[in-house]
Amino acid sequence: MYRIVISIILGLLSVDTYAQDDIVFTPQWTAQAQFAGYYVAEAKGFYREAGVKVRIEHPSVTQPAMARLRAGECQATTLQLCQALEIVDAGIPLVNILQTSMNNAMVIVSARGKDPLSQKGARVGIWSVGFGQLAICMSIKDHLDYQWVRIAQGVNLFVAGALDATLAMSYNEYYQLIQAGMEISDKAVYRFCDHGYNVQEDGVYMTREYYQAHRDKARKFAEASRKGWEWAAQHPDEALDIVMQYADRDGIATNRTLQRLMLKEVLRLQVDRESKKREFRLRPDMVQLASRLMVDNMMLGREVTYEELSEE
Questions:
Q1: What is the DSSP letter of 304?
Q2: Which of 2, 59, 193, 273 is disulfide-compatible with 104, CB 3.0–4.6 A?
C-alpha cells in the first residue's frame, strides 16, 4: 500500500512539474519532415523567444503519442482530424490549438496501372495504427468491398505483389514507392482530396483540461510553432538540414531525397485550395464533412462539432 501511495504522489508531482515548466510535445510519428516546423521552432529559438519551454519527444512502439497525452507524459500532440473526432466521441475532450494541414494527403495506389475504382474486392493495404477512416467510408459508399489488409508501416507488401493496392500518403509512402523503382501512372492513383473527401489532416491538439489551465502557454506554443512552419516554407533547404539532424539523432532509416520530397509536399498541402494561403486554421466545413461521413459509416456514435474542438 505504501509503495502504491508513493507511486501516485510521484506521478502527480511529475505531471505538475511538466505543467509548471515544460510543454512536452510528441508528434504522432518518428522524426521526419512531416514535423519540420516544430523542429525549426525549437532549433531557431522561436519557442524560447515566445517564453515557453518546449521539449520534443517522439513516440515509441510501446508508447504511442495519444497514450502519452492521456498519461500526462506530454501536453501536446499532432493528430489527423478524423482521429481527433474519434477520440472526442470516445469521451476525451480535445482542443485544436493549431491546424497545419489544409488538404487531405491520402491516396490509393493500385498495382499494374489499374484504376482503384475498378478493383472491386481488391486486397488493399491499410495502416494498423489508423488513419484510414476516409478510405473505409469511400469503399462502403462506392460498393467496392475492399479486403483490408493491416500493415504496420512501409510499402514492402505492395512492392512484393502481395496486395492489389495500398493506401499511401502523398508526402510519404507514395514517394517510397517511386524510390523503390515502381512506375506509377496517374490512372493508378486515387486522390481522396479530388473526390469529395478533402478533409484536413494534421493539427496540434491538447486535452481540454490542460488547455483551460494553461491558455497563455498554449497560445505561445501555437504561435511559435506557426512561426517555425512559416520559416520552413521560406527556407526549405535549411529546414531540411534541421530535419535530418533529428532523423540522424534518432537513427531513422530515411534519406535526404525522400525528406526533401516530403517537406515540399507537406508545405503544398498547407495552402488552402480556395484562399491560396497558408491559413493554419481548422475549417468548420471540413469538421462537419468528416463528422458526417464517419457517423454515416458508424465510425462515430454522434456528430462531433467544430465548437467541441475550438479554443472558445
A1: P
A2: 193
User: Which residue type does 149 have?
Assistant: V
Amino acid at 222: A
**What whole-number distance in Å separates Cα of residue 78 and Cα of residue 92?**
15
The Cα angle at residue 198 between residues 133 and 155, in degrees rounded to 5: 55
C-alpha radius of gyration, the chain, whole number: 20
Show the CA angle centred on residue 278, arms to residues 257 and 99, nearest 5°.
90
AA identity, residue 172: N
Q: Which residue has the cell 531525397?
A: 257
Neighbours of 237 (CB within 10 A): 8
- Is 39 in contact with 242 (CB distance < 8 Å)? yes
Residue with cell 494553461: 214
Per the structure block, which three cell numbers stand in for 133? 477512416
Residue at 158: amino acid letter: F
Classify burial at 107, counting beta carbons within 10 Å of its beta carbon; exposed 0-12, middle 13-18, buried 19 or more.
Answer: buried
The partner residues of 271 in beta bridges, in order of sequence, read 278
- Round to whole Å and give the CA distance between 299 and 225: 31
Q: What is the pLDDT along the chain (312 residues), one digit of tens a residue?
A: 333 333 333 344 344 434 445 899 999 999 999 999 999 999 999 999 999 999 999 998 778 888 899 889 999 999 999 999 999 999 999 999 999 999 999 999 999 889 999 999 999 999 987 789 999 999 999 999 999 999 987 899 999 999 999 999 999 999 999 999 999 999 999 999 999 999 999 999 999 999 999 999 999 999 999 999 999 999 999 999 999 999 999 999 999 999 999 999 999 999 999 999 999 999 999 999 999 999 999 999 999 999 999 987
Map residue 276 onto helix, strand or coil. Answer: coil
CA 84 to CA 235: how far, in whole Å?
A: 31
